[in-house]
Amino acid sequence: MIAKDLRVCVRSVQRWRRTWDEGGPRGLRSQGPASLPRLSGKQFAQLEAELAKGPAAHGWEDQRWTLARVRSVGAST
Q: How many CA atoms lie within 13 A of 63 on its CB side?
């Protein structure tokens, strides 16, 4: 039920529970990003400006940003 409500797999919930049991709330604290940023500051600013224009400005009919759409905009900047 928890996994379904959070839209994650059961194993993730099990892992979170095990981490909670071992370290309490501090164990679940974010460790930060798993990798270094792939964009420079300038590239990030360009991507941010393009995203601010909205999906319609990039040819999509609705106003949803999906990861695939962000990737495609990012690849063209």
A: 3
